[in-house]
């Protein structure tokens, strides 16, 4: 047996080549994440700017709710017979703008008179502009007759109030207004004013009491 000199090596094993397959969508994920982050930051910045602007506007303008009162009411007739209501009601309504920097355009005014939710007349005072910290007076007069089919509970209330000479009459005003700050004007708003009145018929000992109305935005 012949001896082998040195180490015996078998056939050379070829080296394995590594192949790198690029992942799918890797670049898009990075770009989309950056885009979403940028959009989120922009939206957050806009919200913060709008919030600061609104706060500064409130701080400068300090808007206050318009104050409305019925200071006088004269009821000379309020008779209900044969499903017909005959009435004569005159009101003094003061409208106060308490704001220092806001003017108000009253573009439309409708005043409705109701007896226990049954409307019997509407009046339309002239439109006007109201300056800063000023008071205007409206004088709607509800007079005439109106066919009114009162329900049983409404008829019962009328009989009760007719005996006392003190009637519960509601006046609701439907408005279209715009506020003015300097040269800027807001869009048209439609607030409603509700005045719950207790009006004595003329000739009774009871006097009408000034009534505050609710300004509903």
Automatic annotation (TrEMBL):
Main location: membrane
Keywords: Membrane, Transmembrane, Transmembrane helix
Domain of life (superkingdom): Eukaryota
Keyword Ion transport: no
GO cellular component, one term: plasma membrane
Transmembrane portions of the chain: 42-61
One Gene Ontology term from the biological process aspect of the record: defense response to other organism
All copies of domain Late embryogenesis abundant protein LEA-2 subgroup, residue ranges: 93-195
Subcellular localization(s) per the UniProt record: Membrane
Membrane topology: Single-pass membrane protein
One family name in Pfam for this protein: LEA_2
Protein's UniProt name: Late embryogenesis abundant protein LEA-2 subgroup domain-containing protein
Source organism of this protein record: Phaseolus vulgaris
């Amino acid at each position: 047996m012949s001896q082998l000199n040195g180490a015996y090596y078998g056939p050379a094993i070829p080296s394995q080549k590594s192949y790198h397959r690029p992942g799918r969508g890797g670049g898009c994920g990075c770009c989309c994440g950056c885009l979403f982050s940028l959009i989120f930051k922009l939206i957050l910045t806009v919200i913060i700017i709008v919030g600061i602007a609104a706060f500064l506007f409130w701080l400068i303008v300090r808007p206050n709710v318009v104050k409305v009162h019925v200071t006088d009411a004269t009821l000379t007739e309020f008779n209900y017979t044969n499903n017909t209501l005959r009435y004569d009601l005159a009101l003094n309504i003061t409208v106060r703008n308490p704001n220092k920097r806001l003017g108000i355009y009253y573009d439309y005014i409708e005043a409705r008179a109701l007896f226990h939710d049954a409307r019997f007349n509407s009046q339309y005072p002239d439109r006007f502009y109201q300056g800063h910290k000023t008071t205007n007076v409206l004088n709607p007069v509800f007079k005439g007759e109106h066919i009114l089919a009162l329900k049983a509970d409404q008829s019962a209330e009328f009989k009760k109030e007719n005996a006392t000479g003190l009637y519960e009459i509601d006046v609701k005003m439907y408005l279209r207004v715009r506020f003015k700050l300097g040269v800027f004007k807001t869009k048209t708003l439609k607030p409603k004013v509700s005045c719950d009145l207790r009006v004595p018929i003329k000739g009774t000992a009871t006097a009408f009491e000034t009534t505050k109305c609710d300004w509903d935005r």
